[in-house]
Amino acid sequence: MTARRFGSFIFVLALCIGNGISFISCAVGFSSHNAKSQGASEELRILSWNVQTFFDSVKDGGEYDEFLKSKTWGNEAYTGRLERLSASLKSLDADVVVLSELENEGVLHDISNFLSGEWNQKKVYDYACFTKPDDSAIGCGVLSRFPMENLTVHSLDVHSSVDMPKMRPIMQVSIVKGEKKLVLLVNHWKSMSGGENSSEQWRRRQESVLCRRMEKCAASKQPSLACGDFNRDILKFKKASSPDMILLRSDPLDDFCTEGVEVCSPWFDMNQDLVEPGSYFYDGEWSRIDHFFACGPVEITSFESSTNGPWCDAESHIPEKYKIWDGKGYSDHLPILCTVAF
User: Fold this and answer.
1) Please, how many CA atoms are within 13 Å of residue 12, restricted to the half-sphere of its CB?
2) pTM > 0.85: yes or no
3) Measuring CA to CA, which residue among 246, 243, 268 is closest to residue 258?
């Protein structure tokens, strides 16, 4: 692990740690609805956003083809994206910002610099961390107004007759506010490229890793929150004991597995209807593939798929996808926001 300081900006870069493919059975965690009764005294507003292939202006060969071949991509286009994203993050005003699909830690540093200019100093993000495996073009970053500690990453190393595709690790970090700590688990699961059904086995393996981590938090009564782009709609997770709960399964190969850890999803409202709109619009349909999952002594007190900004169409709420050919747009995902009490 390497720590870096840029002015008042504290940066932690995590190295990828392989956890193999041995799994343990998971016990059902504590209800996420019990946070207040267990003495919740802190709140955090958390944003999770897949910002769609956010590469810097330097072509080093690892970028996607559309960036390598583009005649319009460069410093001016990159600066424009930074300006739009930082303005959006300011308006969303979260305490913790989780961003998927950043090229490197330098992009996260640039975003922080754009956020710090001419703004309320109490809202500046003084802490950050970033993770990306060596063989990946993109990774995940976290910006926080509050200290972060105990950063680890958890990755898969699968040896089987089927070659393992490139997959991003799960980032685990503790957010410290006052005397309380929230364990944040950042996910960007295997995409559906190559077919949703054929790629699902790899998301199941990532699910089992997340299950292990949240089970350990639950066993020690630590509040935990998983977030990110899971590339799986909420309705395709296994339902648990109550309508707003799902079961993260411990066995990556057993479709009928009933062992795991129960977590709360805010995609279901008080009437158990799905929150509208979703977070991703594809082929004429909304899906809900970006998630928050709460477990342990923590409660999600508010949630939204944010449509109150220029990152989506004002009427349809369809995300304004970034288009490299004209340099316009934001992302093909909507940002999701929640407030947690712990």
Assistant:
1) 21
2) yes
3) 246
